[in-house]
Structure formats: C-alpha cells, structure tokens
Amino acid sequence: MIELKSPGEIDRMAVTGRFVGELLAELSASAAVGVNLMDLEHHARGRIKERGAESCYWDYAPSFGRGPFRNVLCLSVNDAVLHGLPHDYVLREGDLLSLDMAVGIDGWVADSAVSVIVGAPDPEDLKLIEATEVALEAGIDAARPGGHLGDISAAIGAVARHYGYGVNLEFGGHGLGRTMHEGPHLPNDGRARRGMRLQPGLTIAIEPWFCRSTDKIRFDEDGWTIRSADGSRTAHSEHTVAITESGPRVLTRRPGEESGEAGQPAAESRMS
C-alpha cells in the first residue's frame, strides 16, 4: 500500500530521521580496529531504549530470513552487503563495514545506512563507497514531484555504470512511513520517465548498494546475511527521503552533512 503523508506527518518522520542520523554517526565513529560488532549492537540497543524508540528489525521476519531478526542493527562486513546479522566478530584493519538501521518513534519510521572503512583504507574500497554515496545523491535529486519512480532508479543505475559496477535488482529501496516497508519498491536501476508518478507526500528509502566485481548475491547459512557471490567487497548507502512540493527533503542526514532541505543535494556528483 502507498500512503501519501501530510507535511505534519513528514515533520514527525523527520524527528525519527534525526535520531537515526545521529546514532549512525555515533556508531560510525566507534567502528575501529579491535571493536566487536556486538559492542556496536549493544550500544545501539541502549540508545534506542533511552530514546523511547522501537527497532523495526527486532521482530522482522520476512520469508527469506530465519526470523525474527532479534537485533537492532544490520552490520555487514567486507563481502556482506545487506542484512548482516550482528555476531562475535572483532573489526580488523581495512575492514569495510556497512551499518543499517530503522527505528520508529511515536509511530513514524526512518531508515538509513552508511558504509565506513576501519583503519587504513584500500583506494578501491573508497571508490566503491563513493559510488554508493554519489548514486544516493543522484537518486535524491531525481525525487521530484511530477517525475517518475524510474527517474530515481535510472539516476542510480547511471552512476553505477559510470563507476564500472553492476546492479542487482533483487533488493532495493522502498516506501516507508508508519511501517518499515510500504509501497512502492524502488529498484536500483531502471528507465527514466517510467513507473508511478512522484507526488508530494511520498516517503521512500533510497538505498543504492554495489558489489565491486559482480551483480550476483548469495545468502549465508544464517538465512539473513547477503554477500557478493564472488566474495568481492560491497558498500551500501541509504537515506529516508520525502517528496515535497518544492523537491526532495532528506530526513536522515547525519551531523556534519549538509541540511538536505528540499531541492538541495548534500554533495556534488563526482561524475562530471
């Protein structure tokens, strides 16, 4: 089901989004050599409880997982890209970590993800993360009233091809608001000027994710963790975005990022 939100309801989602952005910034700064993934998970649990929020992941039990998830973060390391199940793993020099979280506050949900490198970075990993971030901003910039859902997908796919990465279409962005997953599904590649018309009040999670040398994936035995099929590194970036009369409004910006007010992308595309 697709539900258009009023400006007041979008403001309430923005409260949740601000918390998600702040907590992801905290967790990213804490991701260092020697830190256990479960330390990050338990820190997030404490902050969510303290805020009076509710994790959208704790009871999450889709058909593909061995649910419920029973954690509040997706922590995906190196070749893991989505739904990484937190476990007893100590971060090492050069690890590429993707952190994804969705919570609800007073009945309104926000969802966001960021990828970081622990310790000294590999230039190819920096390029991979940059590609997801540039694709995210391109998708956000395309999320304008009167456009089409395919405009967002096409913008993301164009960035992937520019950087030399393939695109997997099995998992992508999605609508959200009162729950973590609402309509529509938002593929990470597509054709411009196709698909549903974008209207003010539509709230979506835009989430490009790429693998370095494949567009195929595989699942771990835990039923959750999704990895690149060939073991190559992966990265994932995501924001919750509201389409408004004046353009896209990003609800999950992290401290230090630009405001992301309607029509104002947070970063210039490096494609030029």
TrEMBL record:
It catalyses: Release of N-terminal amino acids, preferentially methionine, from peptides and arylamides. Substrate binds at residues 83, 181. A divalent metal cation 2 binds at residues 111, 174, 207, 238. It is an enzyme of class 3 (hydrolase). GO terms for cellular component: cytosol. Keywords: Aminopeptidase, Hydrolase, Metal-binding, Protease. Pfam families: Peptidase_M24. Residues 13-245 form the Peptidase M24 domain. Monomer. Belongs to the peptidase M24A family. Methionine aminopeptidase type 1 subfamily. This is Methionine aminopeptidase. The lineage of its organism: Bacteria, Bacillati, Actinomycetota, Actinomycetes, Micromonosporales.
